[in-house]
Amino acid sequence: MDHPPIPAALPPAHGRDAADAAKCGKKRGSYNCGRCGLPKKGHNCTNIGLESVGVKLAKDGAIEVDEYSQTSVSSIWAVGDVTNRINLTPVALMEGEALVKTLFQDNPKNLIIASQLILLYSLLSRAVPSAVFSQPPIGQVGLTEEQAVQQYGDIDIFTANFRPLKATLSGLPDRVFMKLVVCAKTNEVLGLHMCGEDAPEIVQIFVLLFFDDKL
C-alpha cells in the first residue's frame, strides 16, 4: 500500500513566534519557564490598548487593581499574572473564582477574603512554594542562596545528597538533593530547595517553617 509522502518538518513553534514577533516589531516577554510552577517575569500588558481606554499600569507593566481586582476603569477587571501579585496558577484560579462569585453571584465578600489571603502571602511572599515538574522534579520555598546573602548577609548552607529508601531497596540509581538556607545570626530558615521524586509535594510541609509566630 502506497503512503503519501511525509511533509517536511515544520520549524519549532518558538522559532515561528519569534519570526512573527520580529516582523511586527514587538518583543516577547521574558519568562523563567513556560509550563511549570515557577513565577514568571514580564507581564506583556503594554502596547495592547489598555492605556487608550484608561487602564492604569504599574511601573513594572502590571495592571493596577483594587481589593476587588477592579482596574481604574470600572467595567474592566484583571486577575492572574497580569496583576503581578503572586504569579502562580493556584493563585490565579482563586482570584478568578472569587471574581466570578463577585460579579455573577452577588457575593463580593469572597473576593475580599481572597484579597486578604493574597495580601498575607505578599507579606510572607517567601512562604509561597513553587515547583518545576521536570524529571526529576524540583521544589523550592523561600529565598535562594543569592537572595539570602543580599538580604541577610551572613548565612549558613546545609546540603544533603542521598538515595531514597525505596531506591535503596529496589536498587534504582535515583538520588535526592536537598539544600537548606539558614540565617547565621538567628538560625532562621530562609529557604529550602529540593531535587528528587515528589519534591513538589514534600516542600509544601516546610512552608510552616516560614510562618512560625507570624500568624
From TrEMBL:
Record's keyword annotation contains Nucleus: no
Gene3D superfamilies found in the cross-reference section: 3.30.390.30, FAD/NAD(P)-binding domain
Cofactor: FAD
Pfam families found in the cross-reference section: Pyr_redox_2 (PF07992), Pyr_redox_dim (PF02852)
Keyword Oxidoreductase attributed: yes
Coiled coil: none
InterPro entries: FAD/NAD-bd_sf, FAD/NAD-binding_dom, FAD/NAD-linked_Rdtase_dimer_sf, GSHR/TRXR-like, Pyr_nucl-diS_OxRdtase_dimer
The entry's keywords: Disulfide bond, FAD, Flavoprotein, Oxidoreductase, Redox-active center
Domain FAD/NAD(P)-binding: 49-96
Domain of life: Eukaryota
Pyridine nucleotide-disulphide oxidoreductase dimerisation domain ranges (all copies): 128-208
GO CC annotations on file: cytosol; mitochondrion
GO MF term list: flavin adenine dinucleotide binding; glutathione-disulfide reductase (NADPH) activity
GO BP terms, alphabetized: cell redox homeostasis; cellular response to oxidative stress; glutathione metabolic process
PANTHER family: GLUTATHIONE REDUCTASE
Family (UniProt): Belongs to the class-I pyridine nucleotide-disulfide oxidoreductase family.
The name this protein goes by in its record: Glutathione reductase, chloroplastic
UniProt organism field: Glycine soja
